[in-house]
Write a sequence for this structure.
């Protein structure tokens, strides 16, 4: 059956994009390990990594830098990029809106408000937790408020994708207004702290930071992959989805809750990192199409790779490095426009 | 397959849309629902596949009440072709049609599902479009793809919301003819909403004429499409002629016809520049 074989060939070509991105990500991790003030080559990093694994450490100082400073940052960057891009892909497909991203539900503004409150409360909160953990916990709790409000409203009212987006945006404005109020009434030092949290950074990552967001992210991503067919069917619209055996209301609420949870898990640690959640899925779409079985893993691997490379550039930019969100937008947006214009509507990977 | 609708009522808040709709349809056939805008045609088919829940009454498919079965099981019995299709993120034709296999599919059924999809594309003569993107197709091809998606659900009843509304005359005839043929070949009850009385008259086995939320007339095209019924339901004068055993409706507008329609001399349209 020639037609079917042709379809399988197309599928294989598209899976190859995912495989290439995954291989490039592994290579880029070693590249990322070699970037920083302490000069190490790509080969050095590979050697140090192998020595660490086999237990034959020859340079303790270099091992400390590579394995305990740079590697957790690289690993967490890949996780963050993957979570944001996969979250963006699910939100866009679910809400049938190319402008949706993982922050559409107000996760980022909720996290920012939580973090800002933790920062201004300072020592009173940090008597219970360390200041960093207090900020993370407050950011996490507040980032889930918007989706909780939507879930509460949905118990009494019918929810459509448009209503979900509008409630998310309304919550975003409310939180932004409160954050602005906090910022204009706070001291210079607090203001600077809130601002640096707002632009997002991955540089403070340590190994002990990773397990919780990693566990939440992997569980959520596995859930999204397991139920990807429902998201795929949702692209045909609520009525069609219903007639294909998918409950549109429950699917929207469950999937956005899962996306919000995994986004909150990483954003609480990193601050708001923009761009990759919005544009990452669109770039993946250009190579693998919009079918979710391929789009979700493609977005995840591409998002991880892209944020990792952007973070490498961010670290060597300026005197003290630049926020990764700035670099990802400055490089990614022109790249995205070029790809979009060159490829028009056709997938490059057919 | 047998569809029984008994005493169906549907209201949006306090506005009554459908009231006391009762219907018994049995056997493979093309059944067209006609009626003016806002009369409740779409609401009726949305009540059949439970997109809307009626305030009163029951819908039985082969004796089974649709309100008592899971959505997935219902999707195996009732297929639906919507008025408009997804245009946010267009998929390839195969992937679009493959969506219709969702109620049946498992994680290992792709190969079998693809066989069914390609067989259906071949049946509708659109196999050559299989890997094309949905948004690159013409309106007629769109409609066939959406029809294919409904058919791969392997339903007992196929509902179509104005399947010919964006099509030219040739494609309107082609799509409706396919629907009539498929009802016999696949042994299914095909229910379509139509605004084109002549298309409905030419190809339908049964016509339901709705007026003010109720069934005004039901029967063969010749029984339903009469001058009196059309005047009563649409408030339009018409002339009915019989063509090859089926009614053909000519719309009349006596008031317009009686007026002088001659244009001023300098009003023209031509394919040459004067």
């Amino acid at each position: 059956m020639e037609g079917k074989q042709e379809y399988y060939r197309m599928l294989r070509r598209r899976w190859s994009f995912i495989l290439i991105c995954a291989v490039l990500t592994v290579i880029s991790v070693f590249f990322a390990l070699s970037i920083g003030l302490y000069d190490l080559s790509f080969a050095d990093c590979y050697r140090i990594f192998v020595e660490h694994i086999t237990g034959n450490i020859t340079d303790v100082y270099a091992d400390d830098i590579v394995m305990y400073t740079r590697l957790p940052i690289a690993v967490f960057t890949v996780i963050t990029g993957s979570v944001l891009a996969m979250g963006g892909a699910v939100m866009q497909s679910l809400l049938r809106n190319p402008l949706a991203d993982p922050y559409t539900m107000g996760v980022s503004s909720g996290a920012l408000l939580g973090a800002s409150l933790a920062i201004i409360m300072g020592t009173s909160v940090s008597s219970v937790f360390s200041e960093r953990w207090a900020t993370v916990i407050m950011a996490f709790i507040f980032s889930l408020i918007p989706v909780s409000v939507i879930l509460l409203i949905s118990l009494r009212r019918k929810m459509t994708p448009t209503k979900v987006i509008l409630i998310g945006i309304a919550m975003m404005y409310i939180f932004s207004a409160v954050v602005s109020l906090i910022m204009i009434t706070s001291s210079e030092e607090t203001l600077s702290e809130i601002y640096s949290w707002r632009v997002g950074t991955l540089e403070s990552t340590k190994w002990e930071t990773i397990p919780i967001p990693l566990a939440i992210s992997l569980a959520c991503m596995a859930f999204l992959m397991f139920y990807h067919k429902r998201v795929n069917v949702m692209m045909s619209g609520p009525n069609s989805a219903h007639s294909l055996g998918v409950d549109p209301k429950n699917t929207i609420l469950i999937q956005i809750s899962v996306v919000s949870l995994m986004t909150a898990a990483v954003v609480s640690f990193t601050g708001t990192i923009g761009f990759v959640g919005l544009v990452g899925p669109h770039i993946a779409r250009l190579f693998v199409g919009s079918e979710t079985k391929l789009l979700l893993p493609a977005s995840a691997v591409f998002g991880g790779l892209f944020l990792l490379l952007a973070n490498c550039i961010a670290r060597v930019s300026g005197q003290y490095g630049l926020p990764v969100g700035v670099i990802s937008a400055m490089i990614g947006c022109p790249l995205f426009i070029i790809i979009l214009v060159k490829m028009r509507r056709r997938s490059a990977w057919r | 397959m047998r569809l029984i609708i008994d005493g169906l009522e549907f209201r949006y808040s306090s506005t009554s849309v459908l009231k006391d709709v009762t219907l018994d349809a049995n056997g493979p056939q093309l059944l067209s629902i006609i009626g003016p805008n806002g009369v409740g045609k779409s609401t009726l088919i949305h009540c059949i596949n439970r997109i809307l829940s009626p305030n009163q009454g029951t819908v039985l498919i082969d004796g089974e009440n649709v309100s008592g079965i899971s959505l997935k099981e219902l999707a195996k019995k009732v297929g639906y072709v919507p008025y408009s299709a997804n245009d946010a993120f267009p998929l390839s034709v195969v992937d679009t049609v493959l969506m219709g296999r969702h109620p049946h599919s498992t994680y290992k059924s792709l190969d079998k599902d693809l066989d069914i999809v390609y067989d259906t594309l071949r049946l509708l003569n659109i196999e050559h479009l299989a890997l094309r993107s949905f948004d690159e197709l013409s309106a007629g091809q769109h409609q066939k793809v959406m029809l294919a998606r409904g058919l791969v659900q392997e339903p007992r009843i196929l509902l179509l919301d104005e399947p010919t509304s964006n099509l030219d005359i040739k494609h309107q005839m082609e799509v409706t003819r396919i629907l009539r043929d498929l009802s016999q070949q696949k042994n299914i009850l095909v229910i379509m909403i139509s605004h084109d009385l002549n298309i409905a008259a030419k190809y339908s086995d049964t016509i339901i004429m709705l007026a003010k939320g109720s069934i005004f007339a039901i029967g063969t095209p010749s029984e339903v499409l009469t001058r009196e019924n059309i005047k009563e339901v649409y408030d339009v004068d018409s002339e009915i002629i019989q063509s090859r055993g089926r009614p053909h409706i000519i719309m009349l507008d006596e008031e317009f016809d009686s007026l002088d329609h001659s244009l001023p001399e300098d009003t023209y349209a031509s394919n040459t520049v004067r």
About this structure: Chain A has a mean pLDDT of 87. Chain A touches chain B through 33 residues (CB under 8 Å). The domain at 2-343 of chain A is CATH 1.10.3470.10 (ABC transporter involved in vitamin B12 uptake, BtuC). Residues 60-95 of chain A form the longest helix (36 residues).
